[in-house]
Amino acid sequence: MKEIIELSEKTITIDRNEFLKVKGSIDTNMYFIVSGSLRIFVLDEYEERTIRFGYKENLIVSLDSFLTGKPSDLFMQAIKKTVIKVVSKQQINKFLETESNRNLWIKILENLVVQQMEREVDILTNSPKERYERVLKRSPQLFQEIPNRHIANYLRMSAETLSRLKKS
Questions:
Q1: How far, in Å, CA of 111 to CA of 13, rounded?
Q2: Pairwise CA distance, residues 30 & 105, whole Å
Q3: Alpha-carbon distances, residue 140 vs 34, 99, 119, 120, 137 (angstroms)
Q4: What PROSITE patterns does the record tag this protein with (predicted)?
């Protein structure tokens, strides 16, 4: 992943609660988080539904939009002041001209697919306790970086339930 990050010629800072991307925008960039944290969420008719987080040393992207060039349904919002290195799709495409770089890209995409599959299992796990334990085991840093209200939303439970689970 280091090779991808080194492509970045632009660094931006996003303030707390500021949006990096909003629904309907086309994402032509990948983002490497230098410091801070972001959440990715969708907005249904009733509420925000957090589907992913990014924090220090994470690569984050609205992959559907990045790959297809179509508008995304996702919002990306800073949870706290966040410094991000920006890598454009054009830079990625140039990078992919060599076979070794294409192999690296495939590994990155495979990792993103595995993360998505883990997330789907998280959502389908019936018990709030099981969901909490799965995510805690896989991503303990999440509980250091992200406020409980966002984690609770991500886990599809109330903040009170999350608080009880953390105490037990």
A1: 26
A2: 12
A3: 19, 35, 15, 18, 6
A4: CNMP_BINDING_3 (PS50042)
